Amino acid sequence: MKPIVSKDSIVYFNEDCYTALNSYLEKANHSTIFILVDSNTHEYCLPTFMSKIEKSYSIEVIEIEAGEIHKTIETCSGVWNVLSELGADRKSLLINLGGGVVTDLGGFVACTFKRGINYINIPTTLLSMVDASVGGKTGVDLGNLKNMVGVISESEMVLVDTNYLGTLPAEQMRSGLAEMLKHGLIKDQTYWKKMSDLSKLTTEDLDLLIYDSVIIKNEIVTIDPTEQNIRKFLNYGHTIGHAIESFYLTHPDLPTLLHGEAIAIGMIMEGFLSHHLLDLSKEALSEITEIILQTFPKVSIPKQYEQEIINLLIHDKKNENGTIYFVLLNKIGEATYNCTVPNDLIQKSFEYYGNITT
């Protein structure tokens, strides 16, 4: 697979990953290399990664706890302190080996430590391969508000080695499919059709779907790196989805939802809004609902919590001057950004999802 070139970074795939990495490390002459892992990737991914480095370098490993709940400024502070204690300087390199939490948080740590050191993302989950590690968004959560603190700054390179997917539990694999389905819905009807039947998916098929998904996202972020216009398309399903994810993350009586599980709900609800406010047909809404529910089982959202979730929408990063903006669909493969939605229709989208029979 040919490398995908973005504005300030390059995404390499599988067999090209370590050739590119070793060439880069040899030429860059970094003072120290730090590898950020979580407790899972330390055990399951780090040994493989270390075996791919051809020459001897000064390398230190920093481990954080796994899980979205640890994607905080407090965790960043711990990593900053360790970097400082181990003598990191502005010629140091941080390699982020992990899922979206590691790549988002690690990128933010790198961009802010000593006003910025180089970093490389090596995504190890499907979600981070097609979304979190591409496009330069870095950051952490603020309480239960997703990705409230961060910067946009691309890594030196992204290495997508799909062999790491063999370390994932099924629910983590499924979570990544949500962003891939989203890419089809907002930009490419043909890709959506390819994603609509995963029952006979082979490893080679998955590699190609990941590659195409990265191309779709890269085309958007290259045109609009700072999310002034069309990069907002990538937030389809996220306005409601992030609010649901945040609420479930911190509520003691509710299960934690993976990012993709929450975004899947958001895409169905925002599909409902698209049908009522734009030109998305009833047939297309039914298709979106059916395809997503084939992969993501319906989640029970207790009615007494709906208004609290809706109240979280005001914190969405697309909002301006207190106005909540949505990305909605004109049709499958074509989106519109900066859409406003009446509050009563948002409530009806919860009713639509709740009334779905499976």
Short description:
This protein is of the alpha/beta class. Helices cover 47% and strands 15% of the residues.
Task: Explain what you see.
The protein is α/β, with parallel strands linked by helices and 358 residues long. It has two domains: 165 residues, Rossmann fold; 161 residues, Dehydroquinate synthase-like, alpha domain (Up-down Bundle), CATH 1.20.1090. Helix content is 47%, strand content 15%. The chain contains 14 helices and eleven strands. A hairpin with a 2-residue loop joins strand 7 and strand 8. The chain is globular and about 60 Å long. The mean pLDDT is 94.
Element layout with pairings:
Elements: E1 4-5, E2 10-13, H1 17-28, E3 33-38, H2 39-44, H3 46-51, E4 59-64, H4 73-85, E5 93-98, H5 100-112, E6 118-123, H6 126-132, E7 140-142, E8 145-149, E9 158-160, H7 170-187, H8 189-195, H9 203-223, H10 238-250, H11 259-277, H12 282-295, H13 306-311, E10 326-331, E11 334-339, H14 343-354
Parallel strand pairs: 2-9, 3-4, 3-5, 5-6
Antiparallel strand pairs: 1-2, 7-8, 10-11
Enzyme class: lyase
Domain 3-dehydroquinate synthase C-terminal: 176-319
Keywords: Cobalt, Lyase, Metal-binding, NAD, Nucleotide-binding, Zinc
